[in-house]
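Page 42, continued from yesterday. The earlier attempt failed because a stray header line got pasted into the input along with the sequence. Redoing it now with the clean sequence only.
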Amino acid sequence: MRLDKYLKVSRLIKRRTVANEACDAGRVLVNDKTGPKASVQVKTGDTVEIQFGSRNVKVEVLEVKETVKKDEVESMFRYI
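This time it went through. Structure tokens are written below.
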């Protein structure tokens, strides 16, 4: 699944366009690699780090689903 879509589906970022802009600005790291594009494929076991201003959020991808209900979002990732 594309990185920007995963960020939106997992509700780490509210809108896909905002996720796309964050990737383009270099505020998202996948497996500690700098500058991934929004089209990078995310799979189970990857680590995703997002920089929200002065705060960083680091998560491990546990599951990749196309659609999820709000209650099931927590099964998609684990905070590190």
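Notes: The longest helix spans residues 16-24.
Reminder to self: strip header lines before submitting.
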